[in-house]
Design goal:
Layout (H helix, E strand, L loop, with lengths): L1 H21 L6 H20 L7 H4 L1 H11 L5 H10 L5 H10 L12 H10 L48
Protein name: MYO5B protein
GO molecular function, one term: GTPase binding
Pfam families: DIL (PF01843)
Length: 171
Amino acid sequence: VQQVFKQLFYMINAVALNNLLLRKDVCSWSTGMQLRFNISQMEEWLRGKNLQQSGAAQTLEPLIQAAQLLQLKKKTSEDAEAICSLCTSLTMQQIVKILNLYTPVNEFEERVTVAFIRDIQTHLQERSDPPQLLLDFKHMFPVLFPFNPSSITMDSIHLPASLNLEFLNKV
């Protein structure tokens, strides 16, 4: 059950983040607020179902950071440093793309300046991020089956001769 929810939450994360990276109309402060609220509801649901150890919440980390990026101030060099230290699960390409797509919804918000985006790129140059922008929503986590040891001891097993396993020797 835990593995199923980890996979499901990863797919939710990938599809939502990819939509955020492809659609200018959703890159705003208010969308960041909505995302963060919805993610907190999902995390609370996981806790209520006692699934917090499944790793499902950790798969949402890129989406959480993208939501926070939409909500942060984006003006000074200190803001750029804060963004770089906060957005560790996002690649430089993803951060820059979100900042380029950021669209103010009301008159109190401002567009992200080109100088600020260059400042971000300068701070993130030493990162060795993969070159991909979008997440692979078809990624599958390996299924792990727990090992349950048998109560039957090996020396009590009788192998029938019809199996033709003469090459096996009891030790």
